[in-house]
Amino acid sequence: NNVPESQPSPPPPSLPESQPPPLPPLNSVPESQPETVASSHYEIVNVSMLRTSEGLGLLIDDTPSEKTEYNIRVKSLRENGRAHVAGIQVADRVVSVRGKNMSGKTKKEVAHTISSTPLGEDLNLVLFRKIKK
Fold first, then answer.
1. Stretch 14-29: mean pLDDT, rounded?
2. Taking the C-alpha atoms of 98, 122, 118 and 31 in order, what is their torsion angle to the nearest 10 degrees?
3. At residue 77, does pLDDT exceed 50?
4. Using CA atoms, how far apart are residues 107 and 91, in angstroms rounded to an integer?
5. What's the Cα-to-Cα distance from 44 to each of 29, 38, 91, rounded to whole Å?
6. Do the Cβ atoms of 75 and 107 come closer than 8 Å?
7. How far apart are CA 91 and CA 13, in angstroms?
8. How far apart are CA 59 and CA 55, in angstroms?
């Protein structure tokens, strides 16, 4: 049998240290089970908190210049506010709100989805968080 031996393929190029790695693609984040996504650079964080008239104590921001599918990130948190106590961190990226995928949504659309949660009900968020090394 004269079958030529296959040559090993070269390793994929790595990103320069100064660039953040890309977020996992949308099709890897099923709406029903976003917690199944794993990446060596990002982790999935599931947060649930009760929505009250006091608010959540977080500000979100749109980051279109970063060219990601999940361009809404947490800009700031009120110390000891609901979001802070629940474990949300500045720079977390919003993946889903109440089971609705937020890929490609505007800041206004994400804020509306959050604020439309009835008072007294749980607000469930799924976030991407960059893993600190």
1. 47
2. 10
3. yes
4. 14
5. 10, 7, 13
6. no
7. 26
8. 11
Q: How do beta strands 72-77 and 58-62 pair?
A: antiparallel
Q: How far apart are alpha carbons 127 and 114 in whole angstroms?
A: 13
Query: In 3-state terms, what secondary structure has residue 85?
Result: helix
Q: With contact defined as beta carbons under 8 Å apart, do 34 and 95 qualify?
A: yes
109-118 pLDDT per residue, tens: 999 999 999 9
Q: Which tokens sit at 124?
A: 């469930």
Q: Which amino acid is at 4?
A: P
pLDDT of 35-46, one tens digit each?
Answer: 334 456 889 999
Bridge partners of residue 123, in order along the sequence? 49
Q: Between these two residues, 30 and 5, which has the higher pLDDT value? A: 5
